[in-house]
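tool_log.txt
---
The assistant was asked to compare two proteins side by side. It first ran the structure predictor on the initial sequence, then on the second. Raw inputs and outputs are pasted verbatim so the downstream comparison step can read them without reformatting.
(1)
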Amino acid sequence: MSKSVSVFDLGNILLQPNRIFEQLARSEPEPTRVFFGLTLWLMLLPPLFTFIGTSNSGWLLGVEPLILSPEAVAAISLGYFAMLMIGFFSTAIISSWMAKTYGAAASIGSSFALISIVGAPLAIGSIVHLYPHAFINVLVLVPVLIWTIYLLYRGLPIVLRTGPGRGMLMASALVGYLLVAWVCLLGITVVLWRMGIGPNIGI
């Protein structure tokens, strides 16, 4: 049986994630249906909100707002989308690769579905980018990130059909990978900006 998820399941994903996890555990989701039915639309939200918010008011990093040119805003939004896509695909592929070690289902479709569901709160929470104040964004997104990590630990053993202990270890390994990837991304960003590639914000 093939049971996929789509944007029409977004309410259940946010309010009844356990129900969605259990449905997916009894099926083999098709990767393309998961990606085009849910993932792509979720990944479009943060860059879209960033583009609208930054275009309208700039980023508030201190006393004075940081106003960027339309070209810079578009470039940042496209880069944001590209990084989200790379992050999604790499995490799903690594999840599928790790599955054999932890006795979990190695289905790439299940990994696509799991990562999409786990990331849904962050995608919806990115609506705060419409008001691009650094403090407000951190204040809103940190609790959402905690909820996202909880969903990963809760949903991984169910969707990938492994024991709670192994599921916790695998989820911890994925969190470790994401932290390393995030630090590397920050380093690459700083290097590129110092080379003059990106907006001039006085780094």
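(2)
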Amino acid sequence: MSNIIPVEHIESRIYLFRGQKVMLDRDLAELYGVTTKRMNEQVKRNIKRFPYDFMFQLSEKEKNKVVANCDHLQELKFSHQLPRAFTEQGVAMLSSVLKSERAIQVNIAIMRAFVKMKQVLYTHKELALQFKLLKERVGKRLDKHDAAIADIFEVIRRMLVFESKPKPKIGFRAEGTNKLTN
């Protein structure tokens, strides 16, 4: 099941609200294969499992912001219901109220997506810190090469911001097969 839902699809459904990474009830219900109404009924029945740091309701302004920025959420524009936002812990708690096999597999995929995002963020922060320290040390000893080195640092900084994409495999195809050989 987790192979059926690409991590990139899940990552594109993780938003930043109130300083927290969250997923909206509508996106989660779609992934779980249930209606938003059904999922929210289960949440209401088990509301003690969802404190504010696990789940909160978006304000009207927040709802309008997400509708304006996300094409797949355009139908929320006409909904009188304000979406619920689930933090990583709230998503994990959903597996205890949605007990289907699909819910378990979807939760595993979502947890992997959150972990991947944290790893990428940590790596970018660590690299940015290392380059900042290097720039500070080297910057004190530079004379005529300042502009060239500043350009190099700018290119590296842009590379850190640019999200890497999967690269095509390189190699030769053996006759009669689709497999790549080196």
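---
observation on (2): The longest strand covers residues 20-24. The first helix runs from residue 7 to 11.
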